[in-house]
Predict the structure.
Amino acid sequence: MRVLVTGANGFVGRYLVRRLLADGLPDGRTITRLILMDMDFREPIDDPRVRLLCGSIAEAGRLDEAFTEGPLDLVFHLASIPGGLAEARFELGLEVNLQATVALLELLRRQNHVARLVFASTIAVYGAPMPAQVDDETPLRPGLSYAAHKRVGEILIEDYSRRGWLEGISLRLPGIVARPPEPSGLLSAFMSDVFWRLKTGEPFVCPVSPEAVAWWMSVGCCVDNLLHAATLPCNALLTWRSLALPVLRLTMAELIEALVRRFGDDRHALVDYRPDAQLEAAFGAFPLLRAEAAETLGFAHDGDVDRLIERAINP
């Protein structure tokens, strides 16, 4: 198996790579080459199967390098410019999120070998505000350039798959926790910060109310779902190729109570709620989600809030 991971040094990418190197694929197929692409890498990876390719996937000829050793069997396409930055720098978002995705699809088409492509899409394709319930039939209304580019990627993957040029599946990921406690520029960073601050006993100013409700998924669970998507039988993808995943729907109060149970009653005093109406509208008003198609295919959420916490801090 020749496997490519774009965005391999990102938050999710690093854990996915770690799992691939340690455990391989769930169906037992052997990875003989693991090609990792990102702007740079924090540290070298001492494994003869690994090939590191540094640079932007939008740079001319950069993606071609991943195909020089032969056709690819599996691609995890995680690389992207996130929503806020894609809004501020439209051309950069267009180049990375859409044009580079098209270039990757074309390289896969021309390799004359059908590869499985797992595409990291986003729940942002549903737009905002969302309806009272999101399910497999919910109309898509992308309200950001980032979300529009992801939706176009989904459509193209569906079409290339229909034509038999690849086996594609797009997973609409929610915010994944818990990102490292370092500046990220993400408005949703508080959803990860709460884990680390209460774990280490630091004060946490919560910018949404206790009743704010969100969709939650740990990075460990996210990697499980990416690997499951990589190994689904071909016939399982014929009906649904773009999927919302099962999630835990929890209020901030429910999450914080579970963190207090885990790390100590003294953590209660560390939390100061200072709701921001705009932030709560964006990240604290998530509706019911019925991900029946994904559940039928075997995708899963973390199970309960305690396991969410465990897999968010110890993936």
Observations:
- The mean pLDDT is 95.
